[in-house]
Amino acid sequence: MSTGVKSNAVPSAGQHVDGPRLLGEIGDTNARFALETGPGEIFQVQEYPCADYPGIAEVIRKYLKDMQIGRVNHGAIAIANPLDDDRISMTNPDWTFSIEATRRALGFGTLLVVNDFTALAMALPGLTDSQRVQVGGGARRPNSVIGLLNPGTGLGVGGLIPAADRWIALDSEGGHTTFAPADEREDLVLQYARNKWSHVSFERVSAGSGIEVIYRALAARDKKCVTFDTSDVVKRALDGEPLAAESVEVFCSILGTFAGNIAVTLGSLGGIYIGGGVVPRLGEFLERSSFRERFEAKGRFESYLKNVPTYVITAEYPALLGVSAILAEQLSNRAGGNSTAVFERIRQMRDALTSAERRVADLALNHPRSIINDPIIDIARKAEVGTSTVIRFCRSLGWPRLSDLKLKLATGLTGTIPVSHSQVHPGDMATDFGAKVLDNTISAILQLREHLNFEHVERAIELLNGARRIEFYGLGNSNVIVQDAHYKFFRFGIPTIAYGDPYMQAASAALLGVGDVIVAVSRSGCAPELLRVLDVAMQAGAQVIAITSSNTPLAKRATVALGKDHIEIRESQLSMISRILHLVMIDILAVGVAIRRAVPGEDVAEAIARLRGSADDDVTAALDWLSHGAAGAATGSRKKSVLQNGVKQDVGLERAWPTHRAP
């Protein structure tokens, strides 16, 4: 039997230009992985016990090491788990992980994690006649809805809906619809099941365990005592044991009724497919049973269902075929064709290019992210050519500007927002320089996400959450950032203040000590007056979080350094991008502190609202005024009058009026 997956075959010549892709399927016990070297070319299937590995990243690394694969750009994994967001918590195995963090840890450009039932559904359109067995008549109608049943531990139900040139997976809980018997034997099954459950769904009698329920119901009818493990009913039926064979026959009939229900509900003119671990074992037993007869038995709609084919999935690893299809869809560039089109175009035209242009072509094929992320001068340096050659290469392939090539490569690799760096020129119109500013900012944010050290972020959040007092220091343009940070953090009930004047920074830092934290924001990270102030505070025991460029004196001095180098629009001499990135970093830290201070069952927005309190505008204004130190020279009576103007007494002077404490 052909499965479409070659466990240890030798790859053919038709390979993905972006390298082999990792495909995986993680169940309760084992993790299965394979490499896809080209469309439909899946090889090197290996299984690993989940219990032997602490997490998903470790088992993937083990597989890649065993396969002697140094680099994979794209991967897709199916897991037997619901998926709500980036954070995945599995029960079996007991793994908790972030999809994005795992992608970064493995160095993948793309990592998709999908539900295993969705993966199975997405495999259906690509199944060949050797990967499925048709039961009964009917002919599938192209580009029509497909239905899927998966009798296993439960009864999975879903479908595929055609939409233009793609498929949309439909998840449902159809297995929990109420079971309706169609003959006297099924009446007995329902009566038996009602003694166990208040609601008898189709899943109770059509999933794998349903065969046992049916067997026990028929045994009770015959007043027979069940003395064996009923999980072995299918084997006994195939061996010819009469009661077991009758039980499997009833199971097939019920399944046929349910499959017909799904077909008319979804309008599945593309066919009904049945997977799972139970039905494929039945083989010709299913074909001899009344499955198809009951499938078509829908009264006035019998002729409708006669034209709907039913298939049993026989492919050995259908979930791998499904994640392959999902990954290919994710990588496709809807605006310009297949995701690999840009790579194929470069490869096909390479021999027609000059020798210098071929070096740029090789860089694009082997290191596409260098083309995407780097400015033209760095691209030229890496390709060992001049910048004019880079432009000629783009024009030779039909793209007038480097930004066009960046766009094609970025969408081809990720299917998401492109990243690029474009210089603003004096003659640019608003439509040009506006797009360039936005593209540069988007690019910088995506690079920050790609390269930010989140272990450092966690450490910074720990320091801030446990701080006795937080002070934000910034000079020049960075003063705007620290004022914004102060506005966010003092509302968490933490004594905070922001200083943009070096003399005030020096005076305040001299009073800090153990338990106090300074957040220093600087684009250059080299201001000597700021560095001197931080040295004084750190010698007294204060901690410093630096938001700055890497490898600067500030980054090297700090307790924790956060940031990523980026490219400014040099002609403007404005730190536009760094300001945005620094504001983003402040937001990340603020959300982190809010999460740490959230109570069980509270989301981040609720935590922030609770920590800020329900103060009205007068309270907020008073707290803001006091925390900014505007009343620093005021008398005690002045403070009291301000508080009485709107601040409730239970706010407390210690919270509303953060004071310095000597170390």
Automatic annotation (TrEMBL):
Biological processes per GO annotation: glycolytic process
Superkingdom of the source species: Bacteria
GO molecular-function terms, A-Z: ATP binding; D-glucose binding; DNA binding; DNA-binding transcription factor activity; glucokinase activity
Domain HTH rpiR-type: 340-416
Domain SIS: 460-599
One matching Pfam family: HTH_6
Keywords, in A-Z order: ATP-binding, Cytoplasm, DNA-binding, Glycolysis, Kinase, Multifunctional enzyme, Nucleotide-binding, Transcription, Transcription regulation, Transferase
Protein name (Swiss-Prot/TrEMBL): Glucokinase
Native source species: Paraburkholderia phenazinium
